[in-house]
Amino acid sequence: LPEAEYGTLVIRMLNELRGIVDELRENFVEEIESIKMEMENIKGNQSEMKNTIFEMKSALERIDRVDEAED
Predict the structure, then answer these.
(1) What is the dihedral of CA 23, 27, 33, 34, to 10 degrees?
(2) What is the predicted pLDDT for the residue at 67?
(3) For residues 25 and 15, what is the distance between their CA atoms, to the nearest angstrom?
(4) pLDDT tier at 69 (50, 70, 90 boundaries)?
(5) What's the confidence (pLDDT) of residue 46?
């Protein structure tokens, strides 16, 4: 290849590579945001589960107290 064609080819290939890298970066950022949202959902669910467990535990304690009072 003549030097001018070689230079043009290299520039074209570098531009294509830049486009691929930019697309990968965008996909990566989207995946990270998706993971962050999932983590927030999980944290919210954990908090809700803790509250439910606490309520169940309190209810069981009340039932135990009633049972003890009846004895």
Answers:
(1) 160
(2) 84
(3) 15
(4) confident
(5) 94
Residue 9's contacts (CB-CB under 8 Å, 6 or more residues apart) are: 1
In this structure, what token pair is assigned to residue 38?
């999932």
- Pairwise CA distance, residues 42 & 27, whole Å: 22
Q: 3-state SS of the chain: helix, strand, coil percent to 5? A: 95, 0, 5
Q: Are 52 and 45 in contact (CB under 8 A)?
A: no
Q: Which residue shows structure tokens 């049972």?
A: 67
Query: Tokens 């009072």 sit at which residue?
Result: 69
Q: How far apart are CA 69 and CA 50, in angstroms?
A: 29
Distance CA 27, CA 37 (A): 15
